Amino acid sequence: MAFANEYLTDEQERKKYGSAYVTIDRERDAWLTRSGGGGEMPKFVELHWKNEEIKMHAYDQAKKNAEGTYDIAWRVAKMRIPEKLERYRQDILEMVREALIRHKDRGCIKWDQQIKTVHVEFNDRIINYNPGDIIWM
Questions:
Q1: How many CA atoms lie within 13 A of 131 on its CB side?
Q2: Using an 8 Å Cβ cutoff, are 97 and 51 in contact?
Q3: pLDDT tens digits for 63-73?
Q4: 137 falls in which pLDDT band (50, 70, 90)?
């Protein structure tokens, strides 16, 4: 199974995933959430996997193309991988890529058909999480 954008109607699921709209891979029990940011400010993105949160600062840019649809470019500027998940670094990067491509720009099913392509790139500042660190600036 792969990531999918879902609209959750079950209250228990909304509490677990923190939203009605979620980008989720039920087989891997992984989901992506996003909050804040916009414009010049980063969006705060979290990938939840193996009962851990992988926190990121990411920027997205939507450009309207000649067809009238949009191309989305995501740039993950910072990421904190919990130490106990460090050995899964490559798997995490691929999962983040998959989730952001499916998430597109909003994770909103109604918006999906207006987006033609999604590109994801990672900055060199993929750093480890240290307990006690302040994650969001």
A1: 2
A2: no
A3: 888 888 888 88
A4: very low
Using CA atoms, how far apart are residues 32 and 46, in angstroms rounded to an integer?
6
Domain ranges of the chain: 10-122
Are the C-beta atoms of 71 and 86 separated by less than 8 Å?
A: no
**Domain 10-122 CATH (choose: 1.10.287, 3.40.630, 3.30.1490, 3.40.50):** 3.40.630
Task: Tell me the C-alpha distance between 109 and 103, whole Å.
Answer: 9
Partner residues linked to 31 by β-bridges: 24, 48
Distance of CA 13 to the CA centre of its chain: 18
Using DSSP, state whether 121 is helix, strand or coil: strand
